[in-house]
Input
Amino acid sequence: MDTSPLHTHRWSRRLRGALEAPEHWDFLDAPAGPLADAAEALPLGRYRDALHGVWLGHPLHPALVQLPLGCWTSAALLDFIPGGRRSAGTLVAAGLLAAGPAAVTGWVDWARLDPPRRRTGLVHALANTTGLLLYGGSLLARCRGRRARGRLLGLAGLTAVSAGAALGGHLAYRLAAGPDRAAAVPRLAPTDWVGLGALEDFPSGQAVRRSAGELAVVVVRDGERCDVLAERCAHLSGPLSEGTLVDGCLRCPWHGSEFRLRDGQVVHGPATAPQPVLETRVLSGHLEVRLPGAG
Output
C-alpha cells in the first residue's frame, strides 16, 4: 500500500471532491423544492422553533444524530463479540427509534437552507435513509433468526450512515449550515464610540444600514430610542437592513428568523444564536455606538 505524502494528498483531494460535488448538482433542485415546501407545511406551530434548537442556543439536529450512530456503531462491535448478538439486535432497534426525532429536526433545518446547501443536505438525507432501510432489514432478519444476514445488512447500513455523517460534517463545518454567522462581531465592533450620523437621518420605524468601523450594522429608531444590531443575520448572513419590523422584532428577509430589537434574542428560528447588539448613546443629536462593556 502506497503511503507516500503524494498518494495521501491525492486520496484526500478525491475525498474532498466527493464531498463538495453535491452542492453543484443543480438537478437536485427539482425534488428539493417540493420537499422543502412539504417540510415547511408541517403543522408544527411553536414546536418548530424547539426543533431548530432555539431553546438550546445551537441546532438540535447534530446532538440527536449521536444517538442512532452510537447505537449502530456499538451494535457492529457486539456482532463480533461472543454472546453479544442479542444486545446488538437491541441496539439496532434502539437506533431505529432514535433516528426518527433526529430526522425530523434535520428536515426542519434543511428546509430553510439555500440551494447549494440544500443539495448537499438532500444527498446526506438519502444516504441516511438508505442506512435506515438497511437497518430495518437487519432487524427483521435478526428477528427471523437469520443472524448472518442481519449482521451483513447492519454493516451495509453502517457504511451508508457513515457516508451520510461525512456529508453532514461537510454541510455543518465546510458549508457552515449551522454555526453562528455573527460570532466574529465582538472582534469587529468598535471598542470606542463611533458616530453613525445625526438622529434625524434615521426615519422612525425603518431599518437603516450603516457602518461602525469594519462592522455593518442596522439601526432602528423609535422616537428618541435607537436599537443597533449587527447587520448580517446569525443564521446565514441575510441582510437584516432589508428585513421587516414585527412587534419590536426584526425579521430576516431570507429565512424569516426574528430577533428582538432591544437585546437581539431569537424570537423565531431558524436562527439559534442571538443577534449581537451594540451599545448606543446620543450626543448633540448624533447617534454613537460601541461594543457593549468596552468602557
Observations:
- The CA atoms of residues 7 and 13 lie 10 Å apart.
- The first strand starts at residue 194 and ends at 198.
- The first helix runs from residue 5 to 20.
- The beta strands are 194-198, 207-212, 215-222, 225-230, 244-246, 249-251, 258-260, 266-268, 279-283, 286-290.
